[in-house]
Design goal:
4-stranded antiparallel sheet, globular, homodimer, Alpha-Beta Plaits
Chain lengths: 102, 102
């Protein structure tokens, strides 16, 4: 399993647009066969800061996500709303080890 | 629901110690009544970088975690292993909205 976290800083005037576009991306992403989780979170102290928590079963499926129509649509939409470059970090899982807990 | 993410940079010589202590903390934390998730991840490009993904049902239960014996034990253990101060961020959940998806 691979978990990619993506931290995004959005321009204040685009917070609601970003929530709408990312909710749409979430709904389509969780239907991908390799997807395990696709959480969208917003910082409680800085509402312009978001975190995407994207868990996939393997590297191929993580890569396949970036070729989907819904991902490309999301990226086109949000590109001009970002206050700075987003930071993506790929992780291996330490816990939980049990796949059924995901 | 509240999700706290904690980014930790560990000294290279303490990577295995940190994994062991955090696995122990994970096992105890998921047994807390208010806990929803407690994932422990390691960056694939920087093995000294870890992410804890701690989901609780509400603020009270997030706060209660920090008073548990296992959390205090973990903090005492890992304190000298950290290469710099850890960064904690509290988040509200945008997606998934459905509690059963957590």
């Amino acid at each position: 399993m691979i978990v990619t976290t993506v931290t995004v800083y959005v321009k204040p005037e685009n917070i609601n647009d970003f929530i709408e576009a990312s909710t749409e991306n979430h709904e389509a992403s969780i239907e991908e066969p390799g997807n395990v989780r696709f959480d969208v979170l917003q910082s409680m102290t800085d509402p312009t800061r978001f975190l995407l928590y994207e868990a996939y079963q393997c590297e191929e499926e993580t890569a396949a996500h970036k070729k989907t129509e819904h991902y490309l649509k999301w990226r086109r939409k949000v590109d001009s709303w970002m206050a700075k470059a987003r930071e993506g970090v790929s992780h291996r899982v330490i816990c939980p080890r049990d796949r059924s807990k995901w």
